[in-house]
Design brief:
The structure holds 2 protein chains of 2 kinds.
Chain A lengths: L1 H4 L1 H35 L27 H30 L4 H27 L20 H27 L16
Chain B lengths: L1 H25 L7 E7 L4 E7 L9 E6 L7 E5 L3 E5 L4 E8 L4 E7 L4 E2 L6 E7 L4 E7 L9 E11 L4 E12 L5 E7 L9 E10 L6 E2 L8 E3 L10 E3 L4 E3 L4 E6 L6 E6 L2 E3 L2 E4 L2 E6 L10 E7 L3 E9 L6 E6 L5 E7 L13 E6 L4 E5 L8 E6 L6 E9 L4 E9 L10 E9 L2 E11 L4 E9 L4 E9 L2 E9 L7 E10 L13 E4 L11 E5 L5 E6 L4 H4 L3 E10 L2 E9 L4 E5 L6 E8 L2 E2 L3 E4 L2 E2 L5 E6 L5 E4 L10 E7 L7 E7 L5 E4 L9 E9 L4 E10 L11 E6 L4 E5 L4 H4 L3 E10 L9 H4 L5 E5 L6 E4 L7 E10 L2 E2 L3 E6 L4 H28 L1 H8 L9 H11 L32 H4 L2 H5 L6 H5 L14 E3 L11 E3 L22 H4 L20 H9 L21 H11 L8 H4 L3 H5 L21
Parallel strand pairs in B: 1-8, 8-15, 18-25, 48-55, 49-55
Antiparallel strand pairs in B: 1-2, 2-5, 3-4, 3-6, 6-7, 9-10, 10-13, 11-12, 11-14, 14-16, 17-19, 19-23, 20-21, 20-24, 22-23, 24-25, 26-27, 27-30, 28-29, 28-31, 31-32, 33-34, 34-37, 35-36, 35-38, 38-39, 40-41, 41-44, 42-43, 42-45, 45-46, 45-47, 50-53, 51-52, 51-54, 54-55, 56-57, 57-60, 58-59, 58-61, ...
The chains are: A mainly alpha, B mainly beta.
């Protein structure tokens, strides 16, 4: 770990991790609030069972304690990039469906999208600090999702926000939790 | 007749034969063709069929027919048992000969032919799933009929498993001798996806000219629209995301897998009862749907392991646009506005959309509107060479559509844009030029622009008409402005020829005009100084509209016959100056000056004409000013001046005045400086050519208030029945109104007593005197009681009310005559009683001697004897003849030096005896007492208290002089000595603290004596009743009691049990009558 040798790099990593923890915590709180507003505004039931939505990364990955820090970073980055696309799509659908009505929900959605983008950028910074290449985003992006019914859109939105909330918790913990390998540095930042 | 009968019989026989022949045609013999039936499908040809025996089925059949005798018979061979032949006009004769059978002849009439239309065929059955509509198409086959006919089509819709007829409708059409494709739409109340729908059709042609039987065609083959429940793997809630009108009845179905079980179906938050459509489809029915929220109402089908759903958007069809109005702001675009009316409740892609269509040009514009409830706006381009526009505003949403139209001539609907770039250029102090710009092409019209010119005290509008130009700057000149005034300008414009609307106001610009010389000279007045040597010149500041700038100074000049005596420049802000003039007079000229120049001069003469009989009136404001009126003075040629002075306390008087024309006789002087309760002095001057003359003075109040204080007063003289009160004037500033009267209130009262105001006390003994003659400064109040404390209050009245009271207490002097009478009468009564008693004793001396002093004393009469002796010795009080069973146990030998005691009232009631301990006198007598008996005969002396309010009421004290059995005498003028104990003789068992009997003056010496005292009686002597009225010997008696000490002593029992009430008395209340009281004033006096 080349960056770990430099005191300034360690300092920078610590700074990035602590800011990342705060960002993830704020994002988690905002997503939880948004989730409540979303369920109420869309007329859904909080107990609605949502099947796994295609393209939504699942936070509950088995044995992620065994992953190295870089693997976790990469997995987080992939997840938040996916969320960024999904939230942008939700925002677009929201505008299509509601127009100027319920602008508050649209603003909250846009705010979370901004936080997700910021967090993804933050993860990229951490990866750069690890001297690891940042996986490029697919230029064409993911294939356009099939045309969903309005109800399916609602359920998918619910699934996206729920999973994003889970990811926010996971990211916050992973940034805060010491790596099993190092014991001192935050888990996400630990390189193999 | 017979012949006729035979003919008839023959005819009947022939008919019978013919009938039998016909019957044989139909029935025939076994194996012959039979059951010939003819059916037509097109009313031109008919299809005839018959039955033959099995024998005749082989081989060809010869078939011939002829319609009448004239036409040749048509014959042909056929292997089938059906032929198509033309429909006869009336009847047709058919002969059929099969091989091996006989020829069979049939006659077919038209009525025997059946008309059954050809079975229709469904050309197409198309579903429209979003609208749940089926479109059915079929051909009417009209070309096969020789003429037009009415056709009825019966269409049947079936669904569910097993099939149930949902609806059956009859469709009417006209056959027009050609094939026409007919189409029919049916909207299902259930989504077509929910389950399969089946359709079939049949026909009936109402051929009225055809006499045969007519019947429905057969049903067409059934066409089916399969539901989603027939497609493997298909599931979901249908219809999918529908948009429906409020109040609709809706059916939703849930299509699922065969093995899945539905938990429930909800619409919104409400669960509905499901009905089964098929093994894979269930439905719910929602009646009268309410408007949904912005995100739609969810219809959820909860399966065991999944949710299926749809979102329904319930809203309103668009309302007709209201108040559609179109105008042009610049002849480049036409701006149309309208109110959208009732919200549709649909948003986003389902929102209401607007389009503007112009019929003349055929141009259509889609309108992008924003805002939920604001006025909607849509722009349409101005077309070249078109003035009149016929607009149709189309409104649509998924539920419905509406429209509104407007025909408008835009040259009469000009609403110019807001003028911009407004600037001001000053020409001079009263004139400016305004410039502004309007964006637009107004070359074809004239513009009317309105200029608003406002300052702090004025506002006016100026209309300017100017030819319109294309995106040009316009100018206007504004005159008659006031110098040195801050103005705000703004402008708006409209079409001058066809006014429609003003534009919005432009942004305001400010401009202050430059200064100009003052418009007029100041208003001036002059007064002679108190010394008469100088003249003080006053002037009033010019108003802003007159000063035309900032006044920097005033120039005061004094001319005597064009000769300048004095010239002064007085800088602002002074408004007066003093000119030394001596006794002479001059014409005073005052000029106001600002930076632009000087005002015209104001002139006034200093001459003040003598006046006589100047009266002073009083005036109080009515309304908001003080009214001053006067008689007309014809010789006052140049008007009147009312001058007054504003003064507030210590500040110097500020002169103010007002001028009035000559014909004025009454004015109301108003000033914001006038205050209520302040006295103002007005002077009315008349103006003559020679000078000014004082005509009258007026004292006035804006409003009268109650005086601040009451007059200060003193009691100058006091007698036993009257007092003389004198008071001073109240200072003018404290009067606060014109005095109406002064009132005095007099009532008995002590100084320390807390009493309400006398005027409010309601005391019936209250004496009230009102003095309306305000020149009086004193008053004598009579009929008072002597030696009595009175409370006296004075209050002053104005029209504004009553001043606070000023009060003092006064005590009248004693009435000496009454005093003397009060002394003499009791003394005379006592003397008279004594004389009578002496006379009585003298007259009855023998009897008394026999009774009380017999020669041989009777021991039993000893007490009576004692009683008798007391009487004879003139004891002042009657003793009860109480015979106490007490046997003397010793003999008291008394060596007395005093004469028989003579008790006087004055001694008994002496306050000194009550409140102080005798210091000497009594002790000298006590020294001579030799006590030889401890229990002498008891003589009780009851002394009633004088009738007072003392709580103790009365007490009973036994005084005894053991030696003489007489009360000891104390002279009132004798002062008892303090050193009582030290000078006293033997006192058994104790020395009673004298101090305990004292009220005041408890000296340390006495305290020391108390400490050295011996035995104390079993009572607190300090608590003994000091207020007990006693005789002059009471103190001595107390000492006697002290000498006995024991509680069993009959002499001391009263003091051993002192009344409780007396303990609470801080000091004895002297209620006894005392001679000295006649000469004693109250302490406060």
């Amino acid at each position: 770990m080349a960056a770990a040798d430099s005191p300034s790099a360690a300092l920078r990593r610590r700074d990035l991790c602590s800011r990342g923890i705060r960002l993830a915590g704020k994002m988690r709180a905002d997503v939880v609030d948004l989730l409540d507003a979303y369920v109420e505004q869309q007329g859904l039931d909080a107990s609605a069972s949502v099947a796994a939505v295609e393209g939504v990364p699942l936070a509950a990955v088995e044995r992620w304690d065994e992953q190295t820090g870089t693997q976790r970073l990469l997995e987080n980055l992939a997840a938040y990039r996916a969320f960024r696309a999904l939230l942008a799509q939700m925002l677009e659908e929201q505008r299509e469906q509601l127009g100027e009505a319920d602008a508050g929900l649209g603003r909250a959605l846009a705010a979370v999208l901004l936080q997700v983008s910021a967090f993804a950028y933050h993860l990229e910074e951490l990866l750069r600090l690890e001297s690891r290449g940042i996986p490029g985003e697919e230029e064409d992006g993911p294939p356009p999702p099939p045309r969903l019914s309005r109800f399916e859109q609602k359920l998918r939105g619910l699934g996206v926000l729920r999973e994003l909330a889970h990811w926010a918790v996971r990211s916050e913990r992973q940034l805060a939790k010491p790596s099993p390998a190092s014991g001192a540095a935050p888990g996400l930042a630990e390189s193999p | 007749m017979w012949k006729n009968s035979s003919l008839r019989c023959l005819l009947a026989l022939a008919i019978l034969c013919l009938r039998s022949l016909i019957y044989s045609q139909e029935i025939g013999s076994l194996g012959d063709p039979q059951n010939l039936k003819c059916v037509t499908h097109n009313l031109q040809k008919m299809l005839c069929t018959w039955d033959v025996s099995s024998r005749g089925r082989r081989g060809q059949t010869d078939f011939c027919y002829t319609t009448n005798d004239l036409t040749p018979q048509v014959c042909f061979k056929t292997k089938e048992r059906r032929v198509e032949i033309p429909i006869p006009e009336s009847s047709i004769t058919v002969t059929i000969k099969s091989s091996g059978t006989a020829t069979k002849e049939f006659v077919i009439h038209q009525k025997d032919i059946s008309f059954v239309p050809i079975t229709p065929h469904i050309l197409s059955l198309m579903p429209d799933f979003p609208t749940s509509t089926l479109n059915l198409k079929w051909s009417d086959n009209g070309s096969v009929f020789p003429y037009g006919l009415d056709a009825l089509w019966q269409i049947q819709i079936l669904r569910k498993e097993p099939m149930e007829v949902v609806t059956q409708v009859t469709y009417y059409s006209k056959l027009t001798h050609e094939d026409v494709i007919l189409s029919w739409n049916w909207t299902s109340d259930m989504p077509l996806e929910c389950t399969s729908h089946y359709v079939k059709i049949r026909c009936y042609i109402n051929a009225t000219q055809f006499v045969g039987s007519k019947d429905w065609s057969d049903w067409s083959p059934t066409e089916v629209i399969p539901g989603k429940d027939t497609e493997p793997g298909e599931s979901g809630v249908f219809p999918l995301d529908p948009v429906v009108a409020v109040g609709s009845d809706l059916t939703f179905c849930c299509v699922h897998e065969e093995d899945q079980r539905i938990t429930n179906m909800t619409y919104g938050s409400k669960s509905y009862t499901m009905m089964q459509l098929s093994s894979r489809s269930h439905a719910i029915r929602v009646l009268n749907a309410n408007v949904s929220n912005s995100s739609g109402t969810n219809v959820v089908c909860r399966l065991e392991n999944a949710w299926e759903g749809s979102v329904v958007f319930v809203g309103y069809a668009p309302d007709t646009p209201q108040n559609l109005s179109c105008e042009t702001p610049n002849f480049l675009i036409i701006k149309c506005t309208w109110k959208p009316g009732r919200p549709s409740g649909l948003y986003g892609e389902r929102r209401t959309k607007y389009s503007l269509f112009e019929r003349t040009s055929g141009r259509n514009v889609s309108c992008e509107v924003s805002g939920l409830n604001k006025d909607h706006v849509c722009d349409f381009p101005v077309l070249p060479a078109q003035k009149t526009y016929d607009f149709i505003l189309g409104v649509s949403n998924p539920i419905g559509q509406a429209k509104s139209s407007l025909l408008v001539d835009i040259t009469q609907r000009v609403h110019p844009k807001t003028p911009e770039k407004l600037t001001v250029t000053e020409n001079n102090s009263t004139s400016i030029q305004l410039r502004w710009f309007i964006n637009g092409s107004f070359a074809e019209i004239r513009l009317l622009c309105q200029l608003e010119i406002s300052s702090s005290h004025s506002e006016r509008k100026l209309n300017v008409s100017t030819p319109g130009r294309k995106s040009s700057t316009y100018t206007a000149q504004v005159n008659e402005l006031h110098p040195h005034t801050k103005y705000q300008f703004r402008v708006r414009c409209s079409d001058a020829d066809h006014f429609w609307r003003w534009s919005d106001w432009s942004r305001g610009v400010e401009q202050t005009t430059s200064e100009a010389p003052p418009a007029r000279g100041p208003d001036i007045w002059r007064e002679r100084s108190p010394s008469g040597e100088n003249v003080i010149v006053f002037w009033k500041p010019l108003s802003p509209s007159e000063s035309n700038g900032i006044i920097v100074s005033h120039e005061v000049s004094c001319y005597l016959l064009d000769m300048l005596l004095e010239h002064k420049v007085v800088l602002e802000p002074s408004n007066s100056t003093e000119i030394k003039l001596g006794k002479s007079d001059c014409v005073i000229s005052v000029v106001a000056r600002n930076n632009a120049g000087s005002s015209p001069p104001s002139r006034i003469t200093s001459v003040e004409l003598p006046s006589d009989n100047v009266t002073t009136d009083q005036a109080v404001a009515v309304g908001n000013g003080i009214n001053i009126s006067w008689d007309s003075y014809p010789n006052m040629t140049c008007g009147y001046i009312v001058k007054w002075c504003h003064s507030s306390g210590s500040e110097p008087c500020s002169v103010d005045w007002q001028k009035f024309p000559s014909n004025t006789t009454s004015v109301v002087i108003k000033s914001a400086l006038f205050k209520p309760g302040v006295r103002y002095n007005f002077s009315l001057y008349g103006c003559k050519s020679m000078g000014y003359q004082l005509l009258k003075n007026v004292t006035g109040y804006m409003k009268e208030l109650p005086p601040k204080t009451a007059p200060n007063f003193i009691v100058e003289e006091t007698s036993s029945d009257s007092i003389l009160v004198k008071w001073e004037d109240i200072p003018i500033e404290e009067c606060r109104g014109f005095f109406k009267r002064i009132s005095s209130f007099l009532c008995k009262g002590e100084k320390d007593a807390l009493k309400p105001r006398l005027s409010e006390s309601g005391n019936p003994e209250l004496k009230v005197n009102n003095i309306t003659d305000l020149t009086k400064k004193s008053m004598k109040i009579l009929d008072l009681q002597g030696k009595t404390s009175y409370q006296l209050e004075l209050q002053a009245y104005t029209a504004g009310g009553l001043s606070p009271p000023n009060s003092l207490y006064v005590v009248t002097k004693e009435d000496s005559v009454g005093l003397i009478i009060a002394i003499l009468i009791p003394v005379a009564v006592v003397v008279l009683l004594g004389v009578l008693a002496s006379i009585f004793c003298y007259r009855k001396r023998e009897w008394i001697k026999e009774t009380f002093y017999p020669e041989i004393p009777n021991p039993e009469n000893s007490k009576a004897l004692q009683f008798q002796r007391n009487i004879c010795e003139g004891n002042k009080t009657l003793k009860t003849l109480e015979m106490n069973p007490c046997t003397p146990n010793s003999v008291e030998v008394v060596e007395t030096q005093s004469t028989a005691p003579k008790i006087e009232d004055t001694e008994m009631m002496s306050p000194a005896a009550e409140t102080t301990v005798p210091e000497d006198g009594s002790e000298s007598e006590m020294e001579n007492h030799v006590v030889v008996s401890y229990c002498p005969p008891i003589i009780e002396e009851e002394i009633s208290n004088p009738p007072t309010d003392e709580p103790g009421g009365s007490s009973q004290v036994v005084y005894i002089d053991i030696q003489s059995m007489y009360q000891p005498q104390i002279k009132p003028e004798e002062e008892p000595e303090i050193d009582l104990v030290t000078t006293a003789g033997y006192k058994p068992q104790m020395q009673l603290s004298i101090s305990a009997l004292k009220i005041e003056g408890h000296s340390p010496v006495e305290e020391e004596l108390d400490k050295t005292a011996g035995y104390r009686p079993q009572a607190n002597t300090n608590a003994w009743n000091m207020g007990t009225p006693d005789s002059p010997g009471s103190v001595e008696s107390n000492n006697e009691n002290a000498s006995f000490g024991s509680p069993c002593s009959i002499n001391s029992r009263q003091f051993l049990l002192p009344p409780k009430d007396d303990e609470d008395s801080p000091k004895p209340i002297n209620t006894a009558w005392s001679f000295t009281h006649f000469f004693q004033n109250k302490p406060n006096d």
